Amino acid sequence: MKTAIVTDSTAYIPKEIREKHNIHMIPLSVIFGAETYAEEVEISSEQFFAEMREKQELPTTSQPSVGMFVELFEDLAKEYDAVISIHLSSGISGTFNGAVTASEMVDTIKVYPFDSEISCMIQGFYALEAADMANEGKTPDEIMSRLNEMKQSMRAYFMVDDLTNLQRGGRLSGAQALIGSILQVKPILHFEEKLITPFEKIRTKKKALNRVYELFHEDASLVVPMRAVVIHANRPEEIEIIKRDLEAKYPHVEFMTSYFGPVVGTHLGEGAIGLGWYKK
Prior knowledge:
- Helix content is 42%, strand content 27%.
- By secondary structure, it is an alpha/beta fold.
- The chain folds into two domains: 3-28 and 63-151, Rossmann fold, CATH 3.40.50; 155-279, 2-Layer Sandwich (Hypothetical Protein Tm841, Chain: A,domain 3).
- Strands 10-9-8-13-11-12 form a six-stranded mixed beta sheet, with helices on both faces. A four-stranded parallel beta sheet has the order 2-1-6-7, with helices on both faces.
- It starts with a strand and ends with a strand.
């Protein structure tokens, strides 16, 4: 059986890595006024943050249409027997549900939708693992079983550097954002029950990042093989330093770097940094 792997753009897997692992991507979009851009296709992360600095209004985002999913699945049916479609958390987007609806409309190929319950490159870890297993000839059921096993150890924490986007997007009241700015509060967010929720509010960026490192150490200190990713919103030099420091401390962990693209960056804002990991 030949199985195709699909994910959406919010996994933020670089194009060269997607092509290497034969991962198919369906994009979400970011909308500035009358202009709509498919992320990872028509607008890069760097272009997005440059555009954000020039605009007064926060952009909006949109998920792929069911028709886009149907078209992709029918196209894959020409070459594959099954599709595993891995998407960002259904608690923050209707993308996963769109894949489910499309799977019920296509009868030329069996589709297995998977709710990652998370986003960004941590979601991408599921796609990479699934692609490796598909290339080894594993069945869809075997791959889905492994993805659910991975979910048990998957962790991710995000430090928001600037509260402006959370406030402008309606995630914080004006008073809360003002107090956060005065007190230098850097909220740590995580996914809980498929939603992005506050984990802790910490004063100063340095303390917030140190707290994230502490959380990572709780798992990494067990010295079992792990895979981790450091994620940034337009701070590439900073996360390279973080990655090197972590690699020196945890040689048993395979580290990657990634980025918050336009859709997720709309809400987290420039300067956000995340760390995600799972046990291999």
